[in-house]
Structure formats: structure tokens, C-alpha cells
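Q: O-acyltransferase WSD1-like isoform X4, please. Structure only.
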Amino acid sequence: MQSSRKASYQETLVSPALEPVKTETATKKWETNEEKGMADSKESTSSQEPLSPAARLFHAPQFNCTILTAIGCKTSINPGVIKMGLEQTLMKHPRFSKKLVIDDNKCGSKSKWESTIVNVENHVTVPNLDPNMDSPDQFVEDYISSLSTIPLDLSKPLWEMHILNVKTSDAEAIAVFRIHHSLGDGASLISLLLACTRKTSDPDALPSIPAQQRAGSHFSGGFWGLFFAMWTVLRVIWNTSVDLVLFAATMLFLEDTKTPLKGASGVELKPKRFVHRTVSLDDIKLVKNAMNMTINDAIMGVTQAGLSRYLNRKYAGDQSEIEDGENGKKNNIPKSIRLRASVLVNVRPTPGIQTLADLMADESNNPKWGWGNRIGYIILPFTVGLQDDPLEHLRRAKAMIDRKKLSLEATFSFHSAILVIKLFGAKTYVHRHLLL
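A: Structure for O-acyltransferase WSD1-like isoform X4:
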């Protein structure tokens, strides 16, 4: 945000997708008080929106999930400019201008979104910090970790922003967003963030989102095209069947191997510690291009290699030590370790980041795929073990992710979560699906 363009800031920052919605009840004149009362009652009811199953899940007592995002800036942050920008963008979004209301009645508690007046001063915190503090990086980590232990205030919309004008090793100032996950998933929130920004080359223009290019098949038609299509369908059916069997087994009895990475029962409810390290995206792209894979493949492979080295050190000195003669290193990792992770996947028909206008249009025309939490998850196994060639970790990661792409496991987990929450409640889903 450039201070030299404050005069046109309010005009340029408002995008069509964030303009207030005009209703007929705001201009229509009513002949009788009875008609006016009925209209007011109808308008009050329309201002309330029931929580979706995914939103109820994220408000479950054992799974009250909040998104914490730290954004570094090259210059000191002006709180006045930020507040003005929030008033013209974020506060105009329907989900960010509603608060959570819990109605207690004879049938039990029901939660709804209710429209409210938003005061930006109640959502922006600017602590008075010492710019010459000894360890600013440690302070930022402690500050973000402390935010994870403080629940959001339910009397106002469930989002807030903290401005930390302190110089770290990576930035001149830090802005920390805290948003309840019930407001939206990563694809929705990143789309909204992009809609609140402008190009540095043209401060009046929204950032452009590159179109996602699909890799085409060499067999575009004829016999080989039909054969390739049928083979792909058969692979999808087989992979999905295998994944669903493993998915059901995981819900019932299949557990990961007990390793130093696996905590004891109840560890998921303990306070968390946030520690971050900056990794060069150029280095990741270099590996990606050299190995002809995606960024996710590269990160998965590096994570796999890091976990293997960590476990090898943890198991050092154990009686199961095996001398690896080829590389001269001791392989202390027990064989046949089952180690898996739950990876969230966007299940919208249009993958990747969409423009906010498209996302909000989908919300009005097809709520099933519009704004909100439209995420499934897949159970991704890690291949744990030392490798003679470090690139083998990358190859195995790519092979596993490519296989998961030809599976409907994420779509199944999304719809099964909705069904379980509707039939048995969010608490049952948290216990059986997420806290095992």
C-alpha cells in the first residue's frame, strides 16, 4: 500500500465483488405498520444464516480451529492506512461482517451467523513495542504462539489483525491475521487476500491470476485416445477402491507405528508452539524443474527426507542398529514403519486460486461450490528410511502424489464428513476421524 496515493485509495481498493448488496426492503415504502413489521421480521430472519456442517466442525470444543497467518512487509506498517483499507475491503465481505450467535432452546443449541455492525478498532491491535528489543524473531514466535491460546471473542466477527512494527531478520514489520477456520478455507481466504491488493506496476489494477494449464495427452483421439481414457478410468476406480478400504481401516483399527513423532493420548489438546524457518522458493523451484515435478512434490520429498534423518538420530543407540555398508552411515530406523499424514485438498470443480468475483458468484448460484470450507483430505503415507541417493525421496514422493491424483479419496472424505456431522454431530467426527 503506497502512502503517496491516499487520495485515490478508497476509490481503487473497492472491487465489485465486495460492494454492499442492495435489497428491495431498503427502498420500498409500506402502506401499513403490519406490512412493515412483517418485512422487518423477514429481513431480520434473512440476516441470519445457519452454520454449514464444515463450520460446525471447526467450532467443535475439541477442534476449535483458528488460522494464523504472518505477513512480512518491507516497510513499517501505517495502522491508519491498514484500517482504512480493511473498511473498504474485508469488512464489506458478508462472512466477515457477521458474528456467531448460539440459540439455546428445548431442541438444543443451534449456532447461526448474524449480521452485525463492525468496528474496525475492535479488530486491529497495535501493541507498543520496543524497536530495539534483543531478539525480535523470538518475540514474534512467542507472540503468535500466545495468540493460539486465546479464544476469539464471540461478540464480534471472528477475525482480527495484529500489527507488529518490529524489525526481524526477514521483514521490517509483521502483520498477523487471526481468522477462525469456519469463515473459509485456504482457497477462499487467499482469493479474498488477492482481491484486497493491487499491482505494484499499476496501483489501480487487481492482481492477475495465471490460468492453470493442463498437461495434454499425446493420445488425443482415435484408438489410442480411447484406450488411454479407459485405462485412466480403470486406474481411478482401482486407486479409489484401495484408498477407501485403507480409509475405513484407519477409522476402525489401523494405526501408525509408535515413533518419537507420535505423541501420547491427549497431546492434541495441549498448547502448540509455532516455529518458522524461511526457505528460498527459488531453491525449491530449481529442484522442481530439475526433477520435472511440482512444488508440492518437492516439498513432500524434502519433508520425507527430513523425517527420515530425524528418526535415524532418535533411534541412534538402539539395539536395532544396522550398518549400511554403501554409504558408511548407521541405519537406526526399524523396518516397516507406518507413518502417515492427513493432507487437505480443495475439492471445488475449479482447482487452484479463483478470483473473488468468481468465488462469490458461485456462492450465489451454486452454494455447494462457492465460498466456505470445501476441503477433503487424503491419507498420505511417508516412505521412511535412509536412501543412498537423496533424490530417491523426491521420486517416491512424486510417485505417491501422482497416484493420489488418480483417486477420489478427497471427494469421498469431504462428503463422508458432511454425512457424519449431519447424522451424529461434529463431536463424533472429531473423535473418530481427526483425533485418532
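A: Brief note, in case it's useful. The mean pLDDT is 77.
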